[in-house]
Each structure stands twice: as C-alpha cells, then as structure tokens.
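Predict the 3D structure for this chain.
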Amino acid sequence: MTTASSFWWSLPGPSRFIEAVAGSLNDGRSVVVPTPRIRPPQFNDAIRRACDPAGSFQWFEFTWRGEKTSPANWLARQLLKDSPSVHVDGRILALSNELPSGILWIHGLTMEHWLAWKDFLKSYAAGCLARPAHDRMAIIAPVAGLNPSSQGVTDVSLAVVPWMGWVGSHDQLSYIAWQTRDRGRRTVIDEVSIAIAAELSGFDPGLAEVLSTLPLEKLINPISTLCEYSQDFEWTTFPTSQFEQWENGMVHYTDASLTIHSGVLAMKGDQTSKDELTHRIWRAQVSVLLPFVEMRRRALVEHYMSVLIPPFRLLSGDVVDRVFDLEIGQLEWELTRQQQPVPRCVSILKQIRNRLAHLKIVPAELIRNPAISMV
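Done. Predicted structure below.
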C-alpha cells in the first residue's frame, strides 16, 4: 500500500533529489546533505528504497551524540572487529581491510559538529579513491543547518546534495490531489481548493496535508490555520540572512524562486505579508477559474448561436465580428439587448471574471453557486 510519504517522494521534484543522492551512493561516493532544521517526512526511508530496492546492501545507521573522540575513532569502534588502540583518521579507516562495503547513514549531525566531520569526510573520501567503488563504505551525512554552498567539501568521491530547490508547484498539486483522491467526482470547488492548498503549502508536504482537509471557505481565509500550524516552529523573529531563513525552514527555492513559507507570512501579520497571502490565493484561483469561465462562456455561445448574429456593436463603439469573440460581459449585454432570457450563471461568471481581472479573490459563495455548474 502506498503511504503519503512514499507517494510524495515519488513525485518529479522530490524523486530527482532522491536520485541525485542515491546515484552518488551507488557510485561509491559519500554524500553530505545540507538540510534545514525541518526535514520532509521519511527522508532516510526514501533514500534507502532508492539505493537498495532489492534489500541486498549492507546498511548501517549510527547516531552521533557529540562523542568526545574523533569521528574516525568513533566509527572504527563501531565498524571494525579489532578496534585500533591508536588514533586513526578518515583515510586509514577507508583503507582498512576490515571495513565492510555498503552504505552508512550518520544521524544527529548539526553545525556544532560540522568542522570535525568535514575534515574526517575529506580524509575518508581521499582514502576511498584507493578502493574500487563497489568495495567502499559510502557515507551519507545529512547536516542540519549546513550552508548549502559548502565550499571546499565536494571531491571525486564526496558529493554535496543540498535539500534546496527540488520541489515545484506541480509536485504539491499532485500531492494534494492524491490526498483528496477518495472524495468522489471532482467539481470546480474541489479544483479551486486543491490549487489554493498547493499554492499556500509551497514546499512543505506537512502543510499540504493540513490544508488538503480544509473547506474552501477556510482556504480563502487561512491565517488562523497557518498560525496554528506554525506555532511549533518558533518563528517569532525573521532573520535578515537568507541562509538563516532557509536554515529555520522559513524559506525555500520553489520553481526557481525563493518562496517564504505561508506560515511565516501569517505569523508576521503585517500588511505586506497579508497581501502576499492574498496574492497566492488569487493566483491559485486564476489557474482554475479563468479556464472554467472560458469553457462555460463557449458553451453559452454555442447554446445561443441561433440568435447571436455578428457583427456586434458594443456600447463602447467597438465591433465584434466573430460570435466566439464575445466576452462573458458582452454576451450578457447582447442577450439583454435582444430581450433574450439571460441565465443566472452569466452574471455569476461575469463577477468571477471581473474580480480576477482586478486582482481580487473570488469569494466562496460565488464559486459554490449551483448556477455555474449547470451550464
């Protein structure tokens, strides 16, 4: 059975990240993964499945708890049958005949430990060059709060793959659509709700799961939900440094641009932040409702084709020569001028179109109006 986390990691953006990490590990390269303090769920399980789908690798997992000894000596005690009594470094460990091949995951690394581990990993990578790729112990070391640039770390047998910039808006759309898959036939209300939830959740699958359960009215007015969701992250101040913002999970690169977490905007509460949330909701509505209005407009034109004879001279003095070029407001005016009955849906569709054209959010009651689904 597919779980939520396994589905999320199978999406195009997250799966490309997994492939980048797993590809390096399978080539015998160790991998440093700079991450923010808030990581996606089941991070290690997804990488393990990609590296070893058949379950044939030797897989080791150790947790570093700020041991008093060096990383090399600590690992030697864990991995070698005859633990050396003298100090070893990364190169000596990598060359040891007792070191098994496979993949080793190091949990618990933060910036507090990074300097010691950086030196060890570079030394270890140098030692690995003397061994065939298939006979190495590749290390994966996620480091919370490590600057994604990590200059001076990457080597022939050591890669750096930051958790940054892999998630796109299409990933969240697919994820939320999957989360709501059991709700029966989709309506325009469902499509708008999915689009808003995806736009607001941005790069955060946890927020996507929360928003996918909300009715349209709460998605259009999401501030209380966003604030409640964000309380555990202690976002009481907003650092000026983009790196610190990323480190704390406040921002991420989505669709090649830096995106502020919607929860941060809700917590800040200033007018600029509120305007950005409003714009995200508007952008989501535009993606669904403008095509919907256009589809309904064309259906109405086809329905009234027998009485809509071009050219059409508008109040503005402009002339429309083709019947399918009539906009929804112009269609309403032309039907009224000919004393034809104008369906209630025309007025609703015109209101939706006009609000979006003026950068205004469409209220839930207009989207829920049954008239627009009966064209």
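The chain has three domains: 4-160, 169-269, 289-373.
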